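Running this now, will post back.
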Amino acid sequence: MNVASQYLPLVAHHEAGHAVAAIVLHRQTFDDDRELPAFSSVSIYPDVGDGECGGVVEGAGFYSAQGFTSKRKPIFEDDMDRCLERDDAIREIVACLAGPFAESAFEGYLDPRDMAMNASDGNEGSSDYADAKRIYGELRFLMPRRPDWGRIEDCTARLVLDHWSAIEALAAHLLVKHDLQFDEALTIVAPHLPPMPAATPPERHPQPA
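Update: finished.
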């Protein structure tokens, strides 16, 4: 087994962490998993050509605004628009961190503080952490007071631990079939997730005779 193959289970859990987090967070906004999928595909690559392995979750994203500065603040239509952008930004941070946090859990770090410390030590400067930190910096333009970074890390740790069976199931499938479309991934993880609440039927008013 080459060095890259030894790290493949870690990569599989990393990408599964991103994917499961995306599904869980997506459900906070939308009540239809398949009509509005949380991502398009999740993949791992046993060898990216330089002796290392890698992976990616394609098409996932809650928040895209960037480049805010103290001189150019974003313009919102109203407070609701600002709140939606803020909530999407926080979801995006958690989704970014869920991959490194799932790595930590796979390595045996199950206390949220230990998990956060290990994830930070091993991934600080990575694209996941760089994206998370950039968005966290932009939060100051989206809300009067940003949530503490430690609270966001704790939220991420809780999401990963609470949905660990879903992450493990998806990682196991990724190690066999390296590329999964969203519908395949959802079929794998759905039995491990809480059922979605039933849609409330529209209220029926009696018709006049």
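The two ends are 78 Å apart (CA to CA). More later if anyone needs it.
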